[in-house]
Structures are given as C-alpha cells and as structure tokens.
Amino acid sequence: MARGGKRRGCLVPLLIILVVAAVVIGGWYILAGRVPTPEPLPPGPEKPASQPASCPDVQVVAIPGTWESSAADDPYAPAANPASLMLNVTGPLQNQFDASRADVYTVPYVAQFSNPVAFPPDGQQSYNNSRGAGTAATNDFLVQRHAECPLTSYVLTGFSQGAVIAGDVAASIGNGTGAVPADLVLGVGLIADGRRDPAYGITVGPSVAGVGAELSLNGLKLPGLTMTGPREGGFGKLNDRTYQICAPSDGICDAPAGAMNPGNLMTSLPRLAEYYNNPVHAMYNSFQVDSDGTTATQWVAQWAADMINGAPTPPHS
C-alpha cells in the first residue's frame, strides 16, 4: 500500500508538468498564428461604359519580400528597406509611366519571419501572421481599387514572401474566387516563389529541378510556420500569364522535392541549410535570366512595362 501510494504521489507532479507543458505549447501555436483559410471575395461591380477620370489605366501591385517592408510604409515611396529588391522593379516603372497610365502601388505589410524555435522569442512576427497580413492588405487594396475603377487592369509582382502572397492572390483570381476578375489581370511576375510548382506558370531563365520550399516541406507545422504545399488548381485562368524566376540552388524556390519523406532525407539534408543560409536568394538583382545579360529585376521591370504599353485605355468620365 505504501509503495503504491508513493508511486501515485510521484505521478501527480509529472502530470502537472505535462499539463502545463501542453498549455504552453498550445498557447505558443495560437499566438504564433495559423495560415488563414482563403475565403471567396465578393464579386466586383459590373463593367460600366466608363470609369472616373482619377482611375489609372493599369494598376501595378508589387509585394516586397521578408524584412523589405513594414505595415507603416508609404506604398508610393517605400522606405522601410532602401535595399528592397522590388524597388528595382517599381522605381523604373514609376519613372517611365505617368500615374494616370500606370499607378505603381507597393503593398505595405509586416514582412517578417520569426524563428519558430527561438528561445527566448526573437520578437519577430511569425511567417503565418506576416503572410496572412500581406495577403489581406493586398486583397483589401484590390477590392477597393476595383470598386472605384472597374475598368482598370492589373499587373501583380512579388519577391520571396511577397511572391508567395502575389502567387496566392493570383491563384484565387485565376480560380474565380479572387478580388478582381481574371480577365483584368494582364500578368503576374514572381521572383523566388516559395510555392513554386513546375507544373504551373511559365519559367523565365534557366529551368531548375527543385520545387518551392513549401512543397518540399509540405506538412511541416511549427508554431507560426505552416508549409502549405502546392496551390490547388495552380493559377487557373492566369496560368499562361504567370511568370516564374528562380535561381538554381535557391532553397526558397529550388528545394528538393519531398524532403520530408524518410527515403529522401539523406539526399535532402545537405541542402536544407539553404532555407536559412542562402546567399543566392539575395542576388536576384544580378542574377541573369538570358544570354543578353538581363537580370531578374530588369526582366520583370521590362515585362511589366510591355504589359502596360499594350494594355487598353478605358474610357474615362
């Protein structure tokens, strides 16, 4: 009896510790955030004969990468990170076009990526929260712009985390649940998309054998970090208007397929460090995509300019 009671006495503190640990871990997951479930957005207005004179013919929407924006940044003169890669795309477009022809809007959002296992916490917003905030900010702007300017057409572009967001927004539009009609989207340009799927979109530059990190690590769930796998349905109606640039060995967009499968671990492990220690990912302003020496950012800027030059000029009233 005494021995049994002693064992039960030892079990009580252990159970308390387990319960406390479960509560702490559960709270950690809740505070770190989950990837929000996409919801179909309400349909926009029917196309009128003309739109207000204040409306641009084309709306460019650019989404910066991790640590290259902030929620308080100026969407028309971004300064949160003077070295932001997307400035090499948006700057030339703003210099080339009058705002009445092409309004260039850089989405301000958290743009952070906390280390999910850092202790103490590193003070950054989680990838899930940041990505969710960026997606919401992009969709909110598109919904508002389309309500005001129902004949305006769109060019979407993004880098890294911004490419994931732009790609997700494009996928929802292309599959009929997005913020604007698919026929108003002139094109989508993605640099280093973490959900790059070779089955969808058009590759610019060298082909790479790998996939986006979110496909490579599909199923991985850590506090605030959910690898969501491929985009169901790809880019839908925008598949033939979506362009992907990925530098070989960039672990964000050229990661080993099926890295989480036990049989692939031995070949995948040497490359997993690229998710964090990845100098290639920071070199797209010099990464050449053709034999003429055109860099990734130059290509996207020129491609966007071509889309703008060829876009219709809607009637204004």
From TrEMBL:
The keyword Transmembrane helix belongs to this UniProt entry's keyword annotation: yes
Superkingdom per UniProt: Bacteria
Transmembrane stretches, start-end: 12-31
Oxidoreductase as UniProt keyword: no
InterPro entries linked: AB_hydrolase_fold, Cutinase/axe
Keywords from the named record: Disulfide bond, Hydrolase, Membrane, Serine esterase, Transmembrane, Transmembrane helix
Family: Belongs to the cutinase family.
Protein name: Cutinase family protein
Species name: Rhodococcus globerulus
